Structures are given as C-alpha cells and as structure tokens.
Known about the structure:
By secondary structure, the chain is α/β, with parallel strands linked by helices. It contains 14 helices and 13 strands. The longest helix is centred in the last third of the chain and has 25 residues, at 295-319.
Amino acid sequence: xxxxxxxxxxxxxxxxxxxxxxxxxxxxxxxxxxxxxxxxxxxxxxxxxxxxxxxxxxxxxxxxxxxxxxxxxxxxxxxxxxxxxxxxxxxxxxxxxxxxxxxxxxxxxxxxxxxxxxxxxxxxxxxxxxxxxxxxxxxxxxxxxxxxxxxxxxxxxxxxxxxxxxxxxxxxxxxxxxxxxxxxxxxxxxxxxxxxxxxxxxxxxxxxxxxxxxxxxxxxxxxxxxxxxxxxxxxxxxxxxxxxxxxxxxxxxxxxxxxxxxxxxxxxxxxxxxxxxxxxxxxxxxxxxxxxxxxxxxxxxxxxxxxxxxxxxxxxxxxxxxxxxxxxxxxxxxxxxxxxxxxxxxxxxxxxxxxxxxxxxxxxxxxxxxxxxxxxxxxxxxxxxxxxxxxxxxxxxxxxxxx
Length: 403
C-alpha cells in the first residue's frame, strides 16, 4: 500500500500527471510536457522512458523550433473511445484511439420524429458496426462521449424540454446509452461539444477563452473560459439562442417572444425563402445559392449575421472572449455572414472587447460535435486505468486525421 507523501505515491502522481497531459493534447514533446506539468526535464525524461518501456506511450523523432525533439503520444493500442453525436436530422459516430487517431467514422440521416428509443437503437447498431469494421475488441473501450441538441441538467443528467428533438425531453441519454453499451458514457449538449472539438483540433486551438456559436435548427453557444467548457450550475450556460432581440417578436419554442433563435435558426429562416425557391430548400442550399449570387439568399444570410452579431456583442460585454467560432451550415457562407456579425459586434459591443475579438468560421465543419464527443470521453477517463493496463491490448493503427 502506498503511503500519502511517500516516494512511491509521489512517483505515481507524476506518472499520472504526464499521462494526463499527453492524453489531453494528443502528442507533446518532452519539453512541452515539462512546461505543462511543471516537472523538471530530467523527471519527465525518466517518466517517459518508464512509460515507453511499459507500452503506455510511443516516442517518435520530431522537431521543435528548428531543433530535434521527441514527440510523446499514448500508444495506439492503449484503448479506444467512442463519440456519438445526435443532431436534428443526423446521427454521427466516430471511434478513436487514445493517440487521437480516428479509426472509423460514419454518419446517417435520422428522422426528426424518431423516438429516443429508436434513436438509441440506431446508435447502438452503428457503434457495433464500426467496432466490428475496425476489429476492435469491445473490452478496449475506455468511454463514450455523447452529444445531444439540448440542455442537460448537471445533477440528474436529464435532457431539457427545449431540446430540438421532439419527444426527447425528460430522457436521460447517458444512462440509456450506458445500459446499452456497458461502458461509461459522458453527455453534453452539441454546442459545448462543438466548442470542445474546435478548441482541441480546430479554429480555437491555442485559445483559452472562446465562444462556439452553432446555428442549425436551433441556436446555441459553447463557452470556453480559461481553457475549460463552462456549463453553469444547472448545465444551461450558452443558451444564446434565447437572448431577447424583440419582446414583441415571433413566439419561440421556449415560450418567450423575439428570441435570437426566431431570427436566425433554420426553422424560422427557411420559410422566408421557400415561396421563391421551393419547399425542399435547406440551409445548405441557401448558403450555396448565396455564394452563387442569389440576392434573396444573400440578404437573408446578412440579416441572420447581424442578428447573431447582436447576441455575440452581449457575450463580448459579459465575458470578453478572444475568439468566436461560427459552426453549422451557416459557417460555409464565409464573409457573407461573418462580415455582418463583425459589423453588429462593432456597433453594440464595448469597443475594447470588440477590438480584442476575432470571428472565424469553424475548421471542422459537421464533424466538430462528434470530435468534441471523442475529446469529452478522453478528458473524462482516468489515468490510473492506463497505468494499470486494464485497457491495453491490440488495436489497429490509423493515420491521424485530427490535425
């Protein structure tokens, strides 16, 4: 038994500190590990050697600042995590290893009127199919990250009644999937996972404070404060779609009037254009037509951008983020929507906050949420599991696609 404060317990703590730093970053040089953990270069070198000999990490030659260095990553066969992302009309699943490599990924359409049970049936089937396709042993699964389009109550794990998927309110998604898969499941809303995905691998990499704005069937924000997702005590932080823009405006699904969502979400925007473009028009189609010069679509996208910018200005005044990342189909409109967002921020935000802010499109596209689900699973798993070797075993390797 290790005594607290003993050399053996200190050594174990240092091992876990190094493993955690590498697990969250994907790969680090030994110098970066030392800076991240606060350990000396000599201690890091000894720990990396021990972890390499035990098969927990892999060390490969690289360069940093023009100098030769050694890149440390978790072994590709140390275990796997699964990401599951439920959207308004889609289901996407990805399987990745602890070295931040995607082994398999697949998306399929999801009927918006499907029940929660039907949705989880589909998710269970897709997870099983991808595991079989990769040849991964189920015993190697360390955890699952799950994304849903709505607020999750932190204490109960219950999906809020304002979820985009009808009939899903009041369900406990993590509990449901955990019973089906038999492994730990960690759940969050899609905007938070989009923020996490962009923070780790996308347009937010290297930033400590950002907001990820997802505009789809609803409007939500994932907030990163000091490098961590901020959820609030009840898990509802980031509901930017329900900022009131016009108290006499359209009735929102939340019961209030004139929410940002009623001026920006697809369900409210598309009817403005469908009389002239047909009932099958999608937000993706609106963006494509706008980029091709359609004046109506360009006007609507500009209006949506200005409305989003008003909400972003409120975020700037309250939280002063250094970066806003726009996700969802709307991000593909580029400057057609980003320009109006910046215009509104410049008009309504405190000048000092507006000057410090950069507004960028997401770099991960529709994959942001499922990659964020993988990142969530990676962040929640315990390092003692890796050091004890309980998820070690033979896994196939794959080319890294996160970077």
